[in-house]
Amino acid sequence: MNDAQTTIAELRELVRKFVDERDWNQFHTPKNLAMSVAVEAAELMEHFQWLTPEAAAAMAGDAGKRDAVGEELADVLCYTLALANALRLDVADCVERKMVKNALKYPAEEFRGRYGREQ
Question: Could you say which DSSP state residue 61 is in?
């Protein structure tokens, strides 16, 4: 599988099948899944804690560190997809609608190259 050839629907189905095979739906309540996303996001952040921006960027060149980060990123995504499954949310629709809101909130001509209004 790779990003260029795999759909979100295929990833959701992969997660759904994994959960179903283990009869874990009983534990996969929206609350538990949202908490799990946060826990895994914290584990992802641990890989970058105390690093300078340069050291964090350099992780891309270290296969072992990149793989460890990839595992945590996968955990975040898997729980996120499981939450989407539990709530029957269309991920592509959610992202598209959020990007429309973001574009209105942060017009490119006003925010190009900066992150806040006060800069």
Answer: G
